Amino acid sequence: MTASLVPARRRSAGQLLLLAPALVVGALMLAPLFDLVLRALEADAATVTSLLLRPRTFELLVNTAALAAGVLVLATLIALPLAWLTTRTDLPGRRILNVLAVLPLAVPGYVMAYALIGLSGNYGFMNAVFGVTLPRPQGWLGATLALSLYTYPYLYLNLRAALSGLDQTLEESARALGCGPREVFTRVTLPHLMPAMMAGWLVIGLYTIGDFGAVALMRYEVFSYALYLAYSSAFDRLYAAWIALILVVIALAVVWWEARLREDIRLARTGSGSGVRPRLTALPPLACAAAYGFSGTVVLAALGLPVAVLSFWLLREPVWPVLPDLLRSFSQSLSAAAPAALLAVLLALPVAVLAVRFPSPISNFVNRLAFIGYAVPALAFALAFVFFALEAAPFLYQTQALLVLVYALAFLALALGPIRSALYQARPNLEDSARSLGYGPVGTFIHVVLPCIRRGVTAGLVLVFVVAMKELPIAFLLSPAGFRPLAIQLFSRTSEGMLIAAAPYAAAIIAFSGLTVAAVLRHEGRLE
Amino acid sequence: MNRSRCCLIAAAVLAAVPATAQNLTLYSGRGETLVSPIVAAFTEETGIEVDVRYAGTSELAVLLQEEGEASPADLFWSQDPGALGAVADLLAELPAEITDLVPSALRDDEGRWIATSGRQRVLVVSTERVEEEEIPESILDLTGEEYRGRVGWAPTNGSFQLHVTAMREALGEEETREWLEAMVANEAVVFSNNAAIVQGIADGEADFGLVNNYYLPRFLASDPEFPVRIAHFADGDVGNLLSVAAIGITASSDQQEEAAAFVEFLLSPQAQQYFASQVKEYPVTSSVVLDSDQPTLDMLETSAPDIDLNSLSDLEGTLELLREAGLL
Question: What is the CATH number of domain A54-233+284-316?
Answer without folding.
Answer: 1.10.3720.10
